[in-house]
């Protein structure tokens, strides 16, 4: 029961909106049936008018409550929700799951995630955290054994040069370790991931000398728009999976606000995007209220 109450708490807008529509349809049908066959004869045993009204209200409340419970159970079982259509019969989905294990393991796919604007590749829990999505993605490559941090760094730099992104050279005192070439916010590096994966690495945050990640709100807005545009141009029709960007080291805001902003940005480009996009949220983020996103 606690699980149902929690589901209702985080998805109440969707649950009650859906329940109201079902209740209106049900009671309308019921009203039509009463024109043909009286259904109030079940209350004939009650002579007191006030009591009859109370019983009738209670019956309606029980029916509505059953509809709400049914809607809550349905909502609890949903792990994926379609938000809206994109171009060429593709769609935007938001779903619970693991970013790197979503979808068919044999499918060609893109995985988009954020890194820092220097596009560092050393996963040492100082420069890049091993439990952050950026670090996890790079570790997956290194664990294959045929590419190390230097190899991947060269791949990233070559791809960034191919796109002609601008950058600023930093001094060691400005950033004590890692790459000292800081690219403009919104730069995207595309490299091979594992097997049939392509990684789209978004340059989002900048480091101070203590390697603390920062991103300004205006830069976050610019970066997300840049990534979505890149997906629209480079997806090659393959499904693209991405986390709720900005909730990790960037700490740009809460999950609820950021996922809404990402969805709204994708909506601006929906007529240009020729692939399915999946925003993958951790199962732990139940507070997101997955089904409420259908109400945007």
TrEMBL record:
**Thoeris protein ThsA Macro domain sequence ranges:** 94-281
Q: Which residues cross the membrane?
A: 54-74
What protein am I looking at?
Thoeris protein ThsA Macro domain-containing protein
Q: Which Pfam families does the record associate with it?
A: ThsA_Macro
InterPro entries (alphabetical): ThsA_Macro
This protein's UniProt keywords: Membrane, Transmembrane, Transmembrane helix
């Amino acid at each position: 029961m606690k699980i149902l109450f929690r589901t209702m708490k985080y998805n109440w807008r969707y649950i009650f909106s859906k329940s109201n529509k079902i209740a209106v349809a049900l009671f309308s049908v019921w009203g039509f049936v009463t024109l043909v066959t009286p259904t109030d004869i079940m209350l004939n045993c009650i002579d007191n008018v006030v009591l009859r009204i109370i019983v009738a209200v209670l019956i309606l409340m029980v029916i509505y409550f059953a509809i709400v419970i049914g809607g809550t159970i349905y909502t609890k079982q949903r792990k994926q929700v379609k938000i809206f259509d994109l171009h060429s019969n593709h769609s935007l989905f938001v779903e619970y799951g693991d970013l790197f294990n979503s979808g068919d393991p044999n499918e060609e796919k893109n995985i988009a995630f954020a890194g820092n604007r220097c596009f560092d590749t050393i996963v040492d829990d100082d420069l890049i955290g091993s439990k952050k999505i950026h670090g996890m993605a790079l570790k997956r490559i290194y664990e294959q054994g045929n590419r190390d941090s230097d190899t991947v760094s060269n791949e990233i730099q070559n791809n960034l040069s191919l796109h002609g992104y601008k950058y600023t050279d930093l001094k060691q005192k400005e950033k004590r370790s890692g790459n000292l070439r800081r690219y403009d916010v919104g730069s995207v590096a595309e490299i091979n991931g594992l097997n049939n994966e392509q990684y789209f690495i978004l340059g989002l945050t900048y480091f101070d000398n203590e390697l603390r990640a920062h991103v300004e709100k205006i830069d976050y807005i610019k970066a997300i728009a840049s990534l979505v545009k890149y997906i629209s141009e480079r997806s090659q029709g393959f499904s693209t999976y991405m986390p709720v960007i900005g909730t990790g080291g960037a700490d740009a805001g809460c999950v609820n606000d950021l996922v809404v902003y990402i969805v709204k940005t994708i909506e601006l480009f929906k007529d240009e995007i020729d692939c399915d996009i999946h925003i993958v949220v951790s199962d732990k983020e139940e507070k997101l209220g997955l089904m409420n996103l259908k109400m945007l």
